[in-house]
Amino acid sequence: MTQRSKIDTDGAGTAATGPPVVHSPAGLTSAEVAERVARGEVNDVPVRSSRSTTEIVRANVFTRFNAIIGVLWVIMLLVAPIQDSLFGFVIVANTGIGIIQELRAKKTLDGLAVIGEAKPTVRRDGVAAELSTSEIVLGDLIELGPGDKVVVDGEVAEADSLEIDESLLTGEADPVVKKPGDRMMSGSFVVAGGGAFTATKVGREAYAAQLAEEASRFTLVHSELRTGISTILKYVTWMMIPTAIGLVISQLVVKDDNFKDAVARTVGGIVPMIPEGLVLLTSVAFAIGVIRLGRKQCLVQELPAIEGLARVDVVCLDKTGTLTEGGMDVTELRPLNGGDETYVRKVLGALGESDPRPNASLQAIIDAYPDTVEWRCTESLPFSSARKYSGASFSEGDGENSTWLLGAPDVLLKAGDPTLPEIDHLNEQGLRVLLLARAAHDLDTPDVATDARPTALVVLEQRLRPDAADTLAYFADQNVATKVISGDNAVSVGAVAGKLDMPGAENTVDARHLPDDREAMAKVLDENAVFGRVTPQQKRDMVAALQSHGHTVAMTGDGVNDVLALKDADIGVSMGSGSEATRAVAQIVLLNNSFATLPSVVAEGRRVIGNITRVATLFLTKTVYSVLLAVLVVCSQVEYPFLPRHLTLLSTLTIGVPAFFLALAPNKERAKPHFVRRVMRYAIPGGIVAGAATFTTYLLARHHYTGEDALAAETSAATLTLFLVSLWVLAIIARPYTWWRLTLVAAMAGAFLLVLAVPWLQDFFALKLVGVTMPWTAVGVAAVGAALLELAWRWVDRRFPA
């Protein structure tokens, strides 16, 4: 545009009080930019990929259970020896570990977010340059091309067949054609054409600013794992309150002559009810997952995506950019109907010159046939995934005018055309074929492709990704179905998939023949693996159809035609070199553009979910037996058998240390749903057996021992039984055994034996086995308990399968 026109700036932050925003083909001058920066008219929305340091510390320190334990710790420091307060120091250490790991994850996320940040092209002083979104000021002229995201609100200044997708904001899937003066909303993106717009609202005033800030925040919510743990903790709290009150009253009644000892044993009964390390280990496992994936140049924009991808059973792949590399090479030019090859080369060169933002196919043509003629482009039609072709009209300089189309042969040619078998033969070799056709109608007519005269075939060879075959083999081995969903010719896509030994590559479907009914479409999708000529809307419908059959669907892609499907899939995965729009809606961005990184993400998710399920069973078994012991003590009106130091020792050896190693260990189990049910079906019988066995030993010991030190001997016998049963729980959960898991279980047993054997450790933990009869009785009761555990868990596996 050559004229300068004023636009309304009302509502653009402080812009209303400054000079009017103007459209200028050269953009703002350096002086104008400096003025706006000085006035604060900058796009100052903070790009946050993670929680702040303060939020991380607050989230780890100020928890419900830390508050309970903190109060109990202070009480124990006042009334008991330091060894009965060890549980407090363990909580301090655990909280510190959680904070450190989340800070490390924050550092990784922040670094990756900068790498993956969208950098719009801004024109200033007549020069276009890429800038960070935070450097944009009010009135900046921002250039747009296919796939570019609109980062601030504005008004169209220049438009060249500009089509904008506003579906992420309005839900309307059809692209909107924009003309100069039309409004642009941040959060939308370009699907075809190009242009430029002037920023009229920046910073927090922009339409999608709050949404973008919220969406990019480091979060642990909306996860079955986290939701399940919260549910469990809610029930634990309900159980704790009445049980703890009953325990407090009973111990004060039973030990009316020794208040301090009564308090110590009461606290000893309450503390183990709290699964305090469970939330910590979940956060640590997620945080370490982020760090591990970050090292592989994988940006996890929403943390639950690690978990989500592990639950995926169908991965939908876009061929271009995923199975093949972005670049292509022209291998052959075949003139049709007696066409002159020299003239065809001129046409292809002119078509390449007419598109300022060529896609990969057109770029290969530009490289092969550079523009050598002085033809004037009078009108152009940019490529779009819905049309499957692009076009341009030229004045050839000798009075001749011509209009040309370049695109999918099976779209531009009529059914039964004699050229189609030749094209099919090329497609079967995995080659990509474009048809150059001379149009009989003007570009702006809806039926421009009708009666177009075929002039030449352009044969392109796609470069296969060297790692694609191994990645497809990994998914097949893990029982994850792969579906190739591409806009290209179905036969060509199937040939590419076949070269990569993809299962089901021979089953190719032309999406133009897919049924519209969701149920019928889902059936076809389940039975086939390769789909060609898929429109962007069909990609979205296919994701919905798969989900309707109970599948958890991941969608990968890098182009604007993938955005709708990425948005609706359970997990969206974008390539780092993909369009800004795909990176904006995807939960996972592969910054190294390597499809081979996906197995690492799946493996990381499976490690997190599988290990947290194991670890949660350990923690909640302790909660169940602690509540049961407290109830039995209250009902029997006897002294609580344990001091806090005993349960600190047991928790450390049978839960704390093993859980840390188990939570971070390799784990390739496929993630399963119903987390709470799967954990509690083991924790409840395990806790009941452990609590009952321990209380049985305690009652037997009360009848066996007499005298002043009887309680200490009774406690030692009960502690031995509880340790052995808890160790067996650990041994079951550690299966299937590896050398390090067996070593872990053996090391915990050895540490407990060390405490029993070393005199000063005996005194420190108040543990001393007296006589021979009762210790062996304790071992015998524990053996029966272990046998009952095996029987109970096997029965649970049959009665309540996961």
Automatic annotation (TrEMBL):
Record localization: Cell membrane
P-type ATPase A domain residues: 120-214
A family per Pfam: E1-E2_ATPase
Membrane topology: Multi-pass membrane protein
Record flagged with keyword Endoplasmic reticulum: no
Spans annotated as Disordered: 1-25
Domain of life: Bacteria
Residues spanning the membrane: 61-80, 86-103, 235-254, 274-293, 615-634, 646-667, 679-701, 713-733, 740-761, 773-793
PROSITE patterns, per the entry: ATPASE_E1_E2 (PS00154)
InterPro entries assigned to the protein according to its UniProt record, in alphabetical order: ATPase_P-typ_cyto_dom_N (IPR023299), ATPase_P-typ_P_site (IPR018303), ATPase_P-typ_TM_dom_sf (IPR023298), ATPase_P-typ_transduc_dom_A_sf (IPR008250), ATPase_P-type_domA (IPR059000), HAD-like_sf (IPR036412), HAD_sf (IPR023214), P_typ_ATPase (IPR001757)
Keyword match Signal: no
Protein name (record): HAD-IC family P-type ATPase
Native organism: Streptomyces tanashiensis
